[in-house]
């Protein structure tokens, strides 16, 4: 699925981030450029097979979430509201003055308010039904981050939730682009949020064998594309972008961070959780993103890879990129070495990082990479320190359980 080619693309006029590297776009960008892992022992996961995670540090909803009653929201929604507030402010938009009927909200999440669900289920088992909060359903239903954001901003256009597992945030950005291209809105606030660092999610992923068990060095546990990778590190956070038509942004005379010029969405139809070793879904999504961007593979200078640090995903993604771009392919990085895997938020966070990469013409390094995988094709992986580079076109790859693949294409603002 893709939109027709558009030379101007869509303007990214605002970015908001809440990640394990810190709250705010500047803190996250500085953190990923520093290239140090954020994973640390997590007291809330004590006694589980994996007892460390990538948490958002020092997050206080009382000061960071707009509105008078942030305690009513699940942590996932709190992250979404904080990131969206930053993005809308950065875009120079005033919700009190915009045409609310022409503003769309599209947010993705893999699990919604799973923390609330687990907490209330414990209360039900321990103390019976009268202990269950009447706010449970509004807090944990997956669409409520989008719904609460629409209420907070007074947005009355399309308000939608995407659920494509770990591609959810990227899928939300692509869907927002479709809405703008179809004329269904004039402004789209789009992204993803998840707060899946919970006992149930951690135990379930550990039982699948998906998590790293490097307890001796948690900050070095997430190591995308490294030969010694043994799984991902569970993370949390949110990323939100404000998208507008380029002409509308120009008329408002606001700075443009980058241009979203293409996207592709596909599936590999292979397996519920394992990636297709041939990378057919990702290849199709890349081709669709290039077609809608009216670009060729030779124009791609950089790829923000999905790069989970799991043996199967990284090997399949590396093989796919080598097949698409050849031995002298574009530079590649994965933010998950620093941030861990923020699940449904990852695609939106990494889309924001790709936009910042083309804005600054600077590629953040892949943290914790030490040894190339002898069973995977070599990539031009950026490691150690950021790389100054001319970037004409960058892709951001996102993959998810169920075979989902979403690829977003960004060009510099000018």
TrEMBL record:
Keyword match Acyltransferase: yes
- Domain called Ketosynthase family 3 (KS3): residue spans: 7-412
Which InterPro entries does the UniProt record give? Beta-ketoacyl_synthase, Ketoacyl_synth_AS, Ketoacyl_synth_C, Ketoacyl_synth_N, PKS_Beta-ketoAc_synthase_dom, Thiolase-like
Q: Name one GO biological process term.
A: fatty acid elongation
**GO-annotated molecular function:** 3-oxoacyl-[acyl-carrier-protein] synthase activity
Q: What does UniProt give as the signal peptide span? A: none
Q: Name one Pfam family in it.
A: ketoacyl-synt
Q: What are the UniProt keywords, alphabetically?
A: Acyltransferase, Transferase
Domain of life, source organism: Bacteria
Q: Which family does it belong to?
A: Belongs to the thiolase-like superfamily. Beta-ketoacyl-ACP synthases family.
Protein name, UniProt field: 3-oxoacyl-[acyl-carrier-protein] synthase II
Q: Which organism is it from?
A: Streptomyces yunnanensis
Q: What broad taxonomic lineage does this protein's source fall under?
A: Bacteria, Bacillati, Actinomycetota, Actinomycetes, Kitasatosporales
């Amino acid at each position: 699925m893709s939109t027709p080619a558009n030379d101007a693309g869509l303007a990214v006029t605002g970015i908001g981030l809440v990640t394990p590297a810190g709250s705010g776009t500047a803190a996250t960008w500085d953190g990923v450029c520093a290239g140090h892992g954020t994973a640390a022992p997590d007291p809330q996961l004590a006694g589980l097979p994996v007892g460390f995670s990538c948490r958002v540090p020092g997050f206080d909803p009382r000061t960071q979430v707009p509105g008078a009653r942030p305690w009513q929201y699940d942590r996932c929604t709190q992250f979404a509201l904080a990131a969206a507030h930053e993005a809308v402010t950065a875009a120079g938009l005033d919700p009190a003055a915009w045409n609310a009927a022409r503003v769309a909200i599209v947010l993705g999440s893999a699990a919604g308010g799973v923390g609330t669900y687990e907490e209330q289920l414990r209360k039900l088992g321990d103390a019976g039904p009268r202990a269950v909060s009447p706010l449970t359903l509004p807090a944990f239903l997956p669409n409520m981050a989008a719904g609460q954001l629409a209420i907070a901003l007074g947005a009355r256009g399309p308000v939608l939730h995407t659920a494509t597992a770990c591609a959810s945030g990227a899928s939300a950005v692509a869907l927002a682009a479709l809405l703008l291209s179809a004329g269904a809105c004039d402004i789209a606030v789009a992204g993803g949020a998840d707060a899946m660092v919970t006992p149930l999610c951690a135990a379930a992923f550990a039982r699948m064998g998906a998590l790293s068990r490097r307890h001796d060095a948690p900050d070095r546990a997430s190591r995308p594309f490294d030969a010694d990778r043994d799984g991902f590190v569970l993370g949390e956070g949110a990323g939100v972008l404000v998208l507008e038509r380029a002409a509308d942004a120009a008329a408002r005379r606001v700075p443009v961070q980058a241009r979203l010029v293409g996207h592709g969405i596909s599936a590999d139809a292979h397996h519920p959780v394992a990636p297709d070793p041939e990378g057919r879904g990702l290849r199709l999504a890349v081709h669709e993103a290039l077609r809608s961007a009216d670009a060729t593979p030779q124009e791609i200078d950089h790829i923000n890879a999905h790069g989970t640090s799991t043996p199967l995903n990284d090997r399949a993604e590396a093989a796919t990129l080598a097949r698409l771009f050849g031995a002298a392919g574009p530079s590649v990085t994965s933010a998950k070495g620093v941030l861990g895997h923020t699940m449904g938020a990852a695609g939106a966070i990494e889309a924001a990082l790709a936009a910042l990469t083309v804005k600054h013409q600077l590629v953040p390094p892949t943290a914790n990479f030490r040894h190339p995988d002898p069973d995977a094709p070599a990539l031009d992986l950026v490691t150690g320190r950021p790389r100054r580079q001319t970037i004409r076109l960058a892709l951001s790859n996102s993959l998810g359980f169920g075979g989902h693949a979403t690829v977003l294409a960004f060009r510099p603002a000018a």
